[in-house]
Design a protein that fits this description.
Layout lengths: L1 H21 L1 H22 L6 H19 L7 H21 L6 H25 L4 H4 L1 H21 L3 E3 L3 E5 H26 L5 H28 L15 H21 L1
Antiparallel strand pairs: 1-2
Helix pairs in contact: 2-3, 2-5, 3-4, 3-5, 4-5, 5-10, 7-8, 7-9, 7-10, 8-9, 9-10
Length: 269
């Protein structure tokens, strides 16, 4: 089991390296496929992965990614995105009305939620990559989430005593959570120093520390949120696509929350 998990992890790192360094259409296509798979995993929990609410979700995810891809050349895309979101909501209400009482309210809401939770939030990895200096900034998404997770685990094992969420995740501790945030901030500092020295990035060490800490804190919320959904529906993993890790949502649960935060912090700071 450990060997399988390790090999899968190495493969994921290689894929991340290739797609993030390449950027452009390769990264866009990879995220698009990952988003659809992730949505399918979540929709399966609610029994709508091949039914009308799920199909509508996939369709609007395709339209959304089309807008994201052409965003740099479209004038004032804010209205287009808002129009898409409202159209999706109206479509979902129409599905509920004209198929009544086939689908429960929570299934309709899950389809709407899954679109934002997976497709929209993951797309910010691509949107961060195409920012000025995004070739460096985009790595913070993974540094914050996976770096925080590693640091939190190590600190929790060493000095963790107070449970963070005892009913949801008994192994996570407050000390581990704080250690994860501090560790992500420290990794952010080291990363800034590295890209300044070897890449001539001119990154602000203080800003990268702030982004690292904020991203690390949010990543833990993402991890626990994904666990909460699984607990409520009594499932261990969202899928079996990645041997030893589970599904897309099991591996990218913290990244999903971190990506938009990194994007907006990069823009603001």
């Amino acid at each position: 089991m450990f060997k399988t998990r390790l090999l899968s992890g190495i493969l994921l790192v290689i894929i991340a390296l290739v797609t993030l360094i390449s950027g452009g259409s390769i990264l866009f296509a990879t995220l698009f496929i990952i988003s659809l798979i992730g949505m399918s995993e979540l929709y399966k929990v609610f029994g709508i992965q091949t039914k009308a609410p799920g199909i509508c979700g996939y369709l609007f995810a395709v339209l959304y990614y089309g807008l994201v891809f052409f965003k740099p050349v479209l004038p004032d895309t804010t209205d287009w995105f808002l129009l898409l979101f409202m159209a999706f909501m109206i479509c979902m209400m129409a599905v509920m009305v004209f198929s009544y009482p086939t689908y429960r309210t929570e299934q309709i809401l899950a389809a709407f939620f899954g679109f934002f939770y997976v497709a929209v939030m993951l797309s910010y990895i691509y949107q961060t990559r195409i920012l000025p200096g995004g070739v460096f900034t985009v790595w913070l998404v993974f540094i914050c989430s996976w770096g925080c997770d590693t640091c939190a685990y190590c600190v929790g094992m060493l000095i963790g005593k107070h449970k963070m969420a005892p009913k949801l995740s008994p192994k996570k501790s407050v000390e581990g959570g704080i250690g994860g945030i501090a560790g992500a901030a420290l990794i952010g500092v080291l990363y800034a120093l590295a890209i300044n020295h070897w890449g001539g990035a001119g990154a602000s060490v203080a800003r990268y520390a702030i982004i690292g800490a904020a991203g690390g804190a949010i990543s833990q919320v993402g991890d626990l949120a994904a666990s909460a959904i699984k607990r409520f529906h009594d499932i261990k993993d969202y899928g079996k696509l990645i041997p030893g890790h589970g599904g897309i949502l099991d591996r990218f649960d913290s990244v999903i929350f971190t990506a938009p935060i990194i994007y907006y912090l990069a823009v603001l700071l």
